[in-house]
Amino acid sequence: MSQILPDTISAELFAQRADAVAAAARALSALGWTPATSSNFSMRVDAGHAAITISGRDKGSLGRDDIMLVDMQGKAVGTDARPSAETDLHTHIYRRWPEAQAVLHTHSRTQSVASRLFAREGVIRLEGWELQKAIAGYTTHESVLEIPVFPNTQHMPELVQRIDGWLDAGKPLAAYLIDGHGIYTWGRDMAEARRHIEALEFLLGCELDLRKLTT
Fold this sequence. Notes:
The protein is built from five helices and eight strands. By secondary structure, it is of the alpha+beta class. It has an eight-stranded mixed beta sheet, sandwiched between helices. Helix 3 crosses helix 5 (190-214). The mean pLDDT is 96.
């Protein structure tokens, strides 16, 4: 894949970000969370650009050449490659949270089932689980961690509007699910983003198990 970088971005910096994105994608794919080329991953490069997975690639075998540069409006920069149709959700997160450095989106079975089960309620309330403390800003199991479930659509501006509506209502947001789709979460670095997605996968699995045992 040919990638021409703006003068403000060094080849070394882009390579570092691309390698980090590819490594995270391979690791999460190995867990079975990226079936059939689904999911997308990105990392901020600078204030105006992000490195993101090229659409349609097998996430279990990604390398540096499977990552491309986009601007914060989700447009390709210096390449004819095509980013995911959901790139706008990544760049929206970077615009809303200047401290966010990595965004991860997977389609695990647990995430997909939980999104369908809780779609009618519009939110999953996690409370009492020790692992909630793995999410930045949550320091006790006694806190309530709400994960909204937004209706699925192929129209990204509609999804962005729903996310903005949640935030503009003053509600904290560490991740969100899309009905029948998967989860988005992010972090101040790649390590934090991976910790978040791994903790949320575990917590959603616990909630599903509780439903089965108590209904």
